[in-house]
Amino acid sequence: MKFKIIIATAVVLIAVGGLVYLNSSRIESTETISQAPNVDELIVPQQDARTSVKIERAILSKDGYVVIRGGDGRRIGQVIEISRYLEVGENKDITIELGDFYTYNEADQLIAMIYHDDGDKSFNDLDQPVNASAVFAETGKPVLASVFEHEVAPSDGMGMVTVRYTNTGFEPAKLTVPEGTMVEFINQSDEEMWVASNIHPSHEILATFDQFKGAGKGQSYMYTFDKKGTWPYHDHINPSLEGIINVE
Questions:
Q1: Is residue 70 within 8 Å of 110, Cβ to Cβ?
Q2: Which tens digits make up the pLDDT trace of 79-130?
Q3: Which residue among 121, 149, 177 closes a domain?
Q4: Which helix (H) or strand (E) holds 157?
Q5: By the number of CB atoms within 10 A of the CB, which of 39, 75, 142, 213 ranks highest?
Q6: What's the rounded Cα separation, in Å, for the pair 228 and 176?
Q7: How far, in Å, CA of 46 to CA of 96, rounded?
Q8: Cα–Cα distance between 113 and 65 in angstroms, integer?
Q9: Is residue 34 predicted with pLDDT exceeding 70?
Q10: N- to C-terminal Cα distance for the chain?
Q11: Domain of 45?
Q12: Whether residue 234 is found in the same domain as residue 195
């Protein structure tokens, strides 16, 4: 009789333990799911974004980056700098240094926005921008959707200079332009073109001067050279084809 009672007690304890384990697993699973937000959001304090941009909180629904882009309040400009790789969820107290290649202008209205990583943990053209997350870096106010419809035009009084990309390389291979000039690189070759600053493949000499993707025949890439210096570049797909832009 005692033996049967012991067996019955053991069965009950095992059953109760199993229920407790299953319930705790469900709770952990629920907590894990609740930690992944379904929206992307940036909280940015009011600041003087001359040399850096501070992000109070970045809430990401997928792993990615906070990207700082230029702008004039009506149109969005080129990529200026990116944050470190950020994991899904809430990321606090992020400072993005704008670097030596950015020169502050009172007319600038920098934009901070989230990009989702494509899975390789490296910022490139496959990473997807989340336009709804965009805020102005100095005020933290949201950016209107219409801002994303156009790229920033060349500076007032400046024409656009053209460089042709042919089957034999960039023409002209060497070009001198005034500071603030926009240069359009037009692909007239039979292959894809990917214009990028030296050094290959990191493009670190002028990090913002990077097409981030290939462009087919007839397509073009535009970049505004707003910092004086000598900027060598190449075709990322065919790095033996090079050019130089001198900005005075």
A1: yes
A2: 888 999 999 999 999 999 997 777 788 888 999 999 999 898 888 767 888 9
A3: 149
A4: none
A5: 75
A6: 11
A7: 15
A8: 8
A9: no
A10: 100
A11: 41-149
A12: yes
